[in-house]
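User: Let's play a game. I give you a shape written as tokens, and you guess the letters that built it. Ready? Here's round one.
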């Protein structure tokens, strides 16, 4: 399938979802799967509906570095359990956009690049808004009850690593450092996630995204549950 066909089909699927509160879409998957890219790609076709589109990344809800690495630099358990402030995601985004929520949300509470808190402004979501929330481990038990649509982007580990070599060299400074980080920390953490939460089985939509230009789209539920 062409990328344009994927975006058209996925946009149609999301817009068919009807709720009396903002639709909360999780875009989940392995590191470098293309989660943020897909969220940004969906903004334009979804805006044709004249509905408010809210794009938020889990990257704005990191814990401080000292907390993230408290179990060790290469700990997969640390990556899985300590990377993100799930309570803040719930209180600042997911609960406000829930059926009984006040629709007042914030996009970010922390900047991991500077390791500093961020005081972002409160915004108001329209009743029929669509939230595109991208990030890792989004079907964890703490977050999963809030999603109206779960999209899982599936790629092979070697593809993830190749993309990391291209994207993260400035951050990790060498290909060896990237390889070590992914093999010891990132990939084992993803395995913890797969074994504990079974995101592939529970997702409404699966996108096989090893080839950016020719993804494969599978709707596991004809109408998002």
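Assistant: Ready! My guess for every position:
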């Amino acid at each position: 399938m062409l990328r344009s066909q994927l975006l058209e089909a996925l946009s149609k699927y999301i817009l068919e979802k009807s709720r009396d509160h903002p639709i909360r879409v999780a875009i989940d998957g392995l590191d470098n799967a293309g989660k943020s890219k897909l969220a940004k790609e969906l903004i334009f076709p979804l805006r044709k509906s004249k509905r408010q589109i809210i794009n938020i990344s889990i990257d704005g809800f990191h814990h401080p570095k000292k907390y993230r690495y408290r179990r060790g630099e290469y700990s997969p358990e640390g990556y899985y359990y300590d990377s993100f402030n799930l309570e803040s995601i719930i209180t600042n985004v997911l609960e406000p956009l829930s059926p009984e929520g006040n629709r007042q949300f914030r996009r970010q509470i922390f900047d991991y690049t500077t390791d500093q808190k961020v005081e972002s402004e409160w915004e108001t979501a329209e009743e029929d808004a669509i939230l595109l929330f991208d990030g890792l481990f989004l079907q964890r038990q703490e977050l999963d009850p809030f999603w109206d649509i779960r999209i899982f982007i599936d790629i092979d580990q070697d593809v993830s690593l190749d993309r990391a070599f291209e994207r993260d060299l400035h951050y990790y400074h060498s290909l060896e450092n990237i390889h070590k980080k992914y093999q010891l920390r990132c990939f084992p953490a993803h395995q913890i996630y797969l074994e504990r939460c079974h995101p592939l089985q529970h997702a409404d939509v699966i996108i096989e995204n090893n080839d950016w230009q020719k993804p494969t789209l599978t709707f596991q539920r004809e109408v998002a549950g």
